[in-house]
């Protein structure tokens, strides 16, 4: 295969909505059990959830919960919105669905 077509294929691959780097970032974010639990808690809320409410649900320091939330936001799994001095979070269903769709191609 000519080198030129390899470059085009690689370029097209890296510009997919869910390229490997994005999948890796999401997978790493979901690789922590507390982050999975945080996603579950927010998902069950079906609406925006205040950071303080999330902190109350876990036996973790506020700074630790904030770190986990930041990792989830950086992976685009959560949407964050300032509400005055507080912050609230919502599961980014488009990204979660895209991630599941990406992984589904490995299902037989």
Structural summary, described in words:
- This protein has 108 residues and is of the alpha+beta class.
- It has a single domain, classed as Winged helix-like DNA-binding domain superfamily/Winged helix DNA-binding domain (Arc Repressor Mutant, subunit A, Orthogonal Bundle), CATH 1.10.10.
- It is 61% helix and 13% strand.
- It has a three-stranded antiparallel β-sheet with strand order 1-3-2.
- Helix 3 packs across helix 5.
- The protein is elongated, with a radius of gyration of 17 Å.
List the helices and strands and how they pair.
Elements (H helix, E strand, L loop, with lengths): L2 H12 L5 H10 L3 H13 L3 E2 H6 L5 H13 L3 E6 L2 E6 L1 H12 L4
Antiparallel strand pairs: 1-3, 2-3
Helix pairs in contact: 3-5
Descriptive tags:
single chain, 108 residues, alpha+beta, Arc Repressor Mutant, subunit A, 6 helices, 13% strand, disordered N terminus
Write the H/E string, N to C.
HHHEHHEEH
Helix coverage percent of residues? 55-70%
Q: Gyration radius, to the nearest Å?
A: 17 Å
The strand order across the widest sheet is 1-3-2
Which structural class matches the secondary elements?
alpha+beta
For the secondary structure, the number of strands is 3
CATH class: Mainly Alpha
Outline type: elongated
- Which strand-content bin applies to the residues? 5-15%
* CATH superfamily annotation: Winged helix-like DNA-binding domain superfamily/Winged helix DNA-binding domain
Overall tally of domains: 1
Question: What's a quick, concise take on this entry?
Answer:
The chain is of the alpha+beta class and 108 residues long. Helices cover 61% and strands 13% of the residues. The protein has helices spanning 3-14, 20-29, 33-45, 51-56, 62-74, 93-104; strands at 49-50, 78-83, 86-91.
């Amino acid at each position: 295969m000519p080198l030129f077509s390899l470059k085009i294929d690689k370029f097209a691959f890296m510009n997919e909505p869910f390229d490997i780097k994005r999948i890796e970032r999401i997978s790493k974010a979901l690789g922590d059990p507390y982050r999975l639990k945080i996603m579950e808690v927010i998902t069950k809320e079906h609406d925006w959830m205040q950071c303080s409410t999330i902190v109350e649900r876990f036996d973790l320091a506020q700074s630790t919960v904030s770190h986990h939330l930041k990792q989830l936001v950086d992976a685009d799994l959560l949407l964050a919105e300032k509400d005055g001095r507080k912050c609230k979070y919502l599961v980014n269903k488009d990204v979660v669905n895209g991630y599941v769709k990406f992984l589904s191609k490995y299902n037989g």
